[in-house]
Amino acid sequence: MLKINENPPILWPPVESIRTFEGLWWVAHTKSRNEKVLAHDLMAKNISYFLPMTLKVSRRSHRTFKSMLPLFTGYLFFCGRENDRIELLKTNRVANLLEVVDQKTFLNELARIEQAISAGAPLVPHKYIEKGQWCRVIAGPLLGLEGIVVQNRGNTRLVLQIDMLGQAASVEIDVDMIEPVEGRRAQPSI
């Protein structure tokens, strides 16, 4: 287990936003438990990547352990050109490489995750939701963030989805801080 300071950065190279990365986005489906080591490999090769992680705190034998875990287990997102894709494949840490067909939509989805992480929101993996109400945050540090709102055990959560992966993450939100987005409505819940 890596110490917190030994983890790769969530974003490489350190820039203001993933929107500044040049090239095409790809999704690397990594071999088991290879997300962080692949990120270190990409740093060494100076290839742009985004690896959203969340802090996990656990207690064992009267000790507290803190670790950073990938938000989307088994996936790392990278942006580059064809030669970067080849360098990534040479690492032998990728089980499958997924091509992103709709680059604009995918980047917008990743940018929502990036905004939540930058705001310090405690994201947790969440069941992917296909149907629900699409809403926008109207106040606070997540202002402007959009996602699907769900109710879970009396709590309201904003779900941020990566459609291509069929995965999502969510953050707890006060219902007074969101409003429905007009003209954009997901299908009713099952």
Write a structural description:
The protein has 190 residues and is of the alpha+beta class. The chain folds into two domains: 1-100, Alpha-Beta Plaits (2-Layer Sandwich); 122-190, SH3 type barrels, CATH 2.30.30. It contains three helices and 13 strands. The chain has helices spanning 35-44, 82-90, 103-118; strands at residues 11-12, 24-30, 48-50, 53-60, 63-70, 75-80, 94-99, 124-126, 133-137, 146-152, 155-162, 167-172, 178-180. The chain has a six-stranded antiparallel beta sheet with strand order 8-12-11-10-9-13. Strand 11 (155-162) and strand 12 form a beta hairpin. The N and C termini lie far apart (40 Å).
Notable characteristics:
190 residues; alpha+beta; Alpha-Beta Plaits; SH3 type barrels; 2 domains; six-stranded antiparallel β-sheet; five-stranded antiparallel β-sheet; 13 strands; 38% strand
